[in-house]
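Attaching the record inline, Q. Sequence:
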Amino acid sequence: MHLKEGCSLLLKVHKPSIPFVLSTNPILNLKAGNEENSTVLKEADVLKRLKHEQDITLALEFFKSITNSKSFKHTPLTYQMMIEKVASEREMDCVQYLLQQMKLDGISCSEDLFISVIGSYRQGGSSEQALKTFYRMQDFGVKPSVKIYNHILDALLDENRFLMINPIYNNMKKDGMEPNVFTYNILLKALCKNNREDGAHKLLVEMSSKGCDPDEVSYTTLISSLCKLGKVKEARELAMRFTPCVPVYNALINGVCKEYKIVEGFELLDEMANKGIDPNVISYTTIINTLSDSGNVELSLAVLAKMFVRGCSPNLHTFTSLIKGFFLKGRSHEALDFWGRMTREGVVPNIVAYNALIHGLCSNGSFGDAVCVFNQMERNGCCPNVRTYSVLIDGCAKAGDLDGASKIWNRMITHGCHPNVVTYTCMVDVLCRNSMFNRAYCLIENMQMENCPPNTITFNAFIKGLCESGRVDWAMKVFDQMGNSGCFPNTTTYNELLDSLLKDRRFGEAFGLIKDMEHRGIELDLVTYNTIIYGCCCAGMLREALELLGKMVVIGTKPDAITFNIVIDAYCKQGKVNIAIQLIDRLSAGEWHPDGISYTSLISGICSHIGVEEAIIYLRRMLSEGILPNVATWNVLVRHLFCNIGHSGAIQFLNALLGNGI
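Structure, as predicted:
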């Protein structure tokens, strides 16, 4: 197996800059000069040619060819057209050259031209260059207005340059310009992005005091922010101060759905209907998505039906939510039916939809179909992203398919997609499942060099693999080294180590880990308690196990079937069968009911310490409760029958049991 290294295949490919030099020398070719003099170009003709020329290089060649021609002198509009064209191709050096050429030629620039250039820098993620261009405006005799201030503020906001926004805003006020509603909305968004809801509230007050009434965007921005912070009640109170619109209701619905308060979501839909406001596809899809995530696909379908009744058609996000929900419930056929319906209705799936489909297929054991979808999405022009590859590698890991995982990894690297921590973790998992621990360890070390440090989940996958293969000492060393990578163990880490140490009867180290957990303030969960109780029972430390059971009840950790079955089995193995029977009887009167494992342990204990006849009583009780004996149950009975009454007697006894309907 060979895994390609990420860095060697992740070199960024930059397009070569377009060579652009405007010649200032006279044209020496007289024949060419005569031809140019004979044809006088009009501004409209030049603009039309530049507009319709798709090839940026040819457009520049045409622009240059007429620069020194007597047939035409470039105007502010032709320069603007050319600048906007090269800016759309992110050739910003060429943009700056053209601006400088305009200045040298004495051609005036408009504010709209600078807005266009700033917008291009913004789209290219270069707010700093946008700001430099903004400051150059005065060199061209262009005075900034509120409009261009808004554009530069928005560009800074896009890159979260919050510290630069306030000085620009202050400069704007010093220039005697009054901010308009667009300015305030940008500032509101900046404050909300910084979780400064207090400042946003004050800004709303300032807007009103200056005669600039907040609009729907203003309120929606603040309400959305409050909902994201879990302050839904405060958001609803704010919404009552004005007539809410659809985006505001959508923000509120999203807020309550994030807290899985579905009833409140439906109440908001009803409130919209009562006020004559039609919910849109976002309103319905938000609720459908939450219902699907919680596995309630039936109610999701009811909401979908309501959409149709209201004349609202589902979109890509609606279908994706439903597909995800059906896969979550293991209803693959219905998920695929919705996928087919979506494509038949002309809804083109995007990367999110494809990822949901691939993840659903992998989760339901249809890995081959997931690979087919993966190949299909590429043929349809939808490029897989790092999540797509991670899902497929994880699918390979669960199937133990190292070869498949390696092929997908190498395909990802070849296509220039850099693995993230999730992808690396999935690859570590598949290597561990194939006992390639040295390779997994090298991959974790490589993560540091690739500037993608491993996280706790990565180490947990490695530690789990080591523990399951009996390499507990190595797992303990990895546990001690986690801090060097800035990672700290969590409950899962300790659970894996405790399970292995207790199975190896290394009780001292196990109890040392428990003390370490308590020292670090890491909470013991149900799995931790069950692991420790099982370890204690295996060591014959039943009293300690029961003390731990009492402790977990006191602190509010509710025991489950596994907990009770461990204790029942321990009592039976120690010959305290009557106590086990009493425990089952007492627990059966409450919420918990014994299962097949409970009865099998009890029957085994009764056979060993009381007798087979008594065990048959509990076998009948087991059947009367609708619990069918499994192979383990029958093995216990047959083994004891053969030991106690011999071969022929055992067969006669079993025939009698079966003849009586057992």
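The first helix runs from residue 30 to 38. Residues 6-17, 19-38 have pLDDT under 50 and may be disordered.

More tomorrow.
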